[in-house]
Amino acid sequence: xxxxxxxxxxxxxxxxxxxxxxxxxxxxxxxxxxxxxxxxxxxxxxxxxxxxxxxxxxxxxxxxxxxxxxxxxxxxxxxxxxxxxxxxxxxxxxxxxxxxxxxxxxxxxxxxxxxxxxxxxxxxxxxxxxxxxxxxxxxxxxxxxxxxxxxxxxxxxxxxxxxxxxxxxxxxxxxxxxxxxxxxxxxxxxxxxxxxxxxxxxxxxxxxxxxxxxxxxxxxxxxxxxxxxxxxxxxxxxxxxxxxxxxxxxxxxxxxxxxxxxxxxxxxxxxxxxxxxxxxxxxxxxxxxxxxxxxxxxxxxxxxxxxxxxxxxxxxxxxxxxxxxxxxxxxxxxxxxxxxxxxxxxxxxxxxxxxxxxxxxxxxxxxxxxxxxxxxxxxxxxxxxxxxxxxxxxxxxxxxxxxxxxxxxxxxxxxxxxxxxxxxxxxxxxxxxxxxxxxxxxxxxxxxxxxxxxxxxxxxxxxxxxxxxxxxxxxxxxxxxxxxxxxxxxxxxxxxxxxxxxxxxxxxxxxxxx
Length: 514
Prior knowledge:
Elements: H1 2-19, E1 27-36, E2 42-51, E3 61-63, E4 66-68, E5 78-83, E6 89-94, E7 98-99, E8 107-115, E9 130-134, E10 142-144, E11 154-157, E12 160-163, E13 168-171, E14 177-184, E15 187-193, E16 204-209, E17 219-222, E18 229-233, E19 239-247, E20 256-263, E21 266-268, E22 277-282, H2 311-319, E23 322-327, H3 350-353, E24 381-385, H4 388-392, H5 401-425, E25 430-435, H6 441-459, E26 463-467, H7 485-503
Parallel strand pairs: 22-23, 22-24, 24-25, 25-26
Antiparallel strand pairs: 1-2, 3-4, 4-7, 5-6, 5-8, 8-9, 10-20, 11-14, 12-13, 13-20, 14-19, 14-21, 15-18, 15-20, 16-17, 16-19
Helix pairs in contact: 2-7, 5-6
C-alpha cells in the first residue's frame, strides 16, 4: 500500500507540473509591480527573469539501502527513476538519505536521479545510471542451530524432523531433503550421518543445482564420516542460485541430519513453484532397493540402491510435482519381513506407520517422535504399492490353504480400511493402488483387485488399479529379485500416464533415460 500511495503521488505531481506549462529547456518568471506617481497616474512595470534547466544532480549512490546524492542549488524536489530486473521503470520523489527498502523489495535495480521543475526552473536531465542491490539487513550467510527449524530460507522436502537437543534437521525417508536459495558463488553444508562405520549402509545424497531435477545430472555423494563437511556448490557465477539436496538411501539404513549451511554470499528464500503434489506410500519397490545391481545374488547396499531412480521419484519428476515418500523395505499392510517370523503385527505395519512421523534405522516405527501432522502435505493424488511382503514374508508358502485364505482376507480388510482412512484424511483425493513391479501379480493380483473393488463401493470410484511392468521381464532383476532402474523408468511412464488421465495434470518433462 505504501508503494502504491507513493506512485500515485508521483504521477499526480508530474501531471500537475506538466499542466503548469513548465518548459523543458528554459523557464520564465514574470514579476508585476505597481508604482503610484505623484500625479496619481498608475504605471505597471513587468520584469522577466529566465533560468536555464536545473543541472543534473551528481554523486548518486545507494549503500545499505540508503540513497544519497549531492543537492542542487535552488532545487527542492528530486525524482528517482527505478528500473527492476524485468525492465519495469517507476519514479519516486525522494530526498537524499531516504531508505529505499521502505518502498522497494529487496533485489537489484538501476537508479537515475533528476531535479523536477519548479517555478522559474525546468527539470534537469537524468543522471547516469547506478546499479545497486537492496539487501535485507537481517540477511545471513550462515544457517545453524535454530535456523534448522526456520522455513524462511530452507524448503524442507518430504517428512523431516527438527531435533531441539542437537539443533539439527533429520531426514529419514527416501528422497527427503531440502532446497535453499542464496546469492553468491558457493554453498557448504555440515551433516550428521549414521551407520557410516558400515560400508554397505553409508548414506548417499544427491546434489541438484539451479533447478536441475534429473537425478542422472546430480552429484552423488557418499557420507563416510559421522559429521562430514560437504561443499555442495562452488565456482558458480555471482548471483542467485538454488541447491537441492536429496537423500538417496532409505530409512532402514539410517538417518542423516543437516547441522548447518554457509555461503560466501547471503541466503534468500527459494522459489516455490510446484503446486501439484503426490503422496507415495509403499515398500522396497519405492526405495530403489538394489536397482543398480546387475544380479539377483548381489547383496543390496546403499551403493547399488538409488531411490531417485525409482518409479516414485521419477513419476513426480515427469509431472514436476512436489512429493512425499513414506516407504521402507520389508513392510506390508498386515505383516512383513520387518515383523518377527512374518507375524501379523498391529504396530509394525505401513498402515500404522503412516500416522507416525518416521521409521528408524532399525526398521521400527518411531512412536516416540509422535504422530505426523497430515496438514503439512496435502496431495492431489496418492500412490500406494503394498502387498508383496504380506504374501512373501516367512511362513506363507508353508501355510495350509485355510491359513492362506485367512491371511488374504486379513490383507484385503486391512488394506480397504487404510484406503478409507486416507480418504478421511484427504477427502476426494484419487488413490492409485499399484502392484506387479515385483513380478508377483500371480501371487496377489486377485487380492489387489478385491481391495480396489471393495474400497470403491464406499469411495465411488476414487480408487484406481495399476498393474506395473514386472521386473525381470523387459529388463533383468537387480538385487534379491528387485527391479532394476530401467524397469523403474518404464513403470514411472505408466504411472505418469495414469496420473494425467485421473487428475488432468499434464506431463511437464520427458522421463530420464539410461
